[in-house]
Fold this sequence. Notes:
It is built from 16 helices and 15 strands. The protein has about 550 residues and is α/β, with parallel strands linked by helices. The radius of gyration is 46 Å and the shape is elongated.
Amino acid sequence: MLVELRIRDFAVIRDLTLEMGAGLNALTGETGAGKSILIGALSLLLGERASSDSVRTGAERAVVEAVFDLADEPELLARLTELGFPLEQDFLLLRREVQSEGRNRAWINGSPATAGAVGELGRSLVDLHGQHEHQTLLRPEEQREILDAFAGASETVDRVRQAHGELEELRKRLEEGEARRRELEARADFLRFQLTEIRDARPVAGEDDELEAELRRLDHAEELARDAGQVERLLYTDEGSASERLAGARDLLRGLARLDGSLEQALEDADSLFHQVTELGRTMGRYAAGVDMDPGRAEEVRRRVDLLFRLKRKYGPELDDVIAMRERLEGELGELDASGFERETLEREIGRVEGELREAAAELGRLRSGAGERLAAEVEALLPELGMEGAVFRVELIPREEPGPNGSEGVRFVASLNPGFEPRPLARIASGGELSRVMLALKAILARLDRVSTLVFDEIDAGIGGRVANAVSSKLREVAEHHQVLVITHLPQLASRGHRHLRVAKEARDGEVTTFVTTLEGEARVEEVARMLGGDPESEASREHARELLRGVSGS
């Protein structure tokens, strides 16, 4: 529910606060007092494009704020929390600011937001019926939702959307799988050639390093054997070798240690050194004897090294990359082999879900067809009471080639509001006042089902009076039992039926003309209704007539 509308430096309004209550709020005032400006300000919060022309002359910016009580809107409260706009005490604050140089900004509960986000929230809370550009009734999706709500088809609508979403996902997976399969098939021969080339080589991790080390040994076999043998002789086998000299030194140290015990460690070191040099000499001898002098093995290793080098150059740079490429190629070709089975599985699932979608869409179509006839009959029966004698209202179902997320048909409201004319879409045949009365008829029928909490009617009393004015007033009062309603009116019958009466006036303050709003009660309200009746608001006769109207409401 809209609790408060605050406007500052907008058009001729300097600073205005409009407080609204539950039920029917009637907004009255002389022509030109600024009632349409209030609607223009509210329209900003419903997503209208901001213009610097709306900034009051001499001001830097225009600001429009609306406070909503969402205590009865649990779904919207949860949604706002998900979006990062938690509420305090269930109150929502929407704000739009238009600067004189053209820039504009928006906030949700004090946090910066886009104008689109503010407008989306505003439209979920306020339905404005007047000028065509604000009429939700003209949007095909709104007409579809009205019909589905009247049909009680919410569960079937959910089934259709769920089935369609699942079908789209399956089709997307099939399309992506088929594209992938075609891509693999186009490359399959080349992939198999690459895989065969790597498989035939049978590369082993680390093999290239080992082979290159072996090839170095084979290419320098004579040098390795010769020099290793020389090391053996110097350390161990030749006369006067290092081990022979160490043996002599060790014998001398043994004698010295017997004389001086402090040389025992030196004797141990000499003994250890002797054994190390001896063992090293023997090792080098064994190495020299074991050097492979086979030229055939060198050639074999060289060919293997060359093969691995070519593979690394194509698939590397390292041998691990070649092995990884083999595994990747095996995976891609395996994917191609499995794609046929996956395609069959997906096609079976698509067929199943298509059947579910067609069944749900057909059920939704039957519900819409029956509900469309009933809704049209009820609206058409109500329109003469609202001043549209002979008006025709129809709900058209427009078949689609295949079911979509909203079923197998589009929904369109058509009407002929003047006898003798063929029914046409509402946007092409209705004035603002007529369209508001069509919406009033719909709202009266759907009052308990409508999700938007606040309804604003502008121009609804255009061209009506007498009996029709009474009928319109009664219907608005009925709708106000289930919604908060703000109606801008020149009709005393309608103003007198309001639960709350607000008067818009314009006066010069501090040398400047500005618009202000007053909540009327008691004699002030009697005086305003008397003025609207066309008599002298100061005369007792006019006032008594006004009191009769107001008593009629309070007594009804």
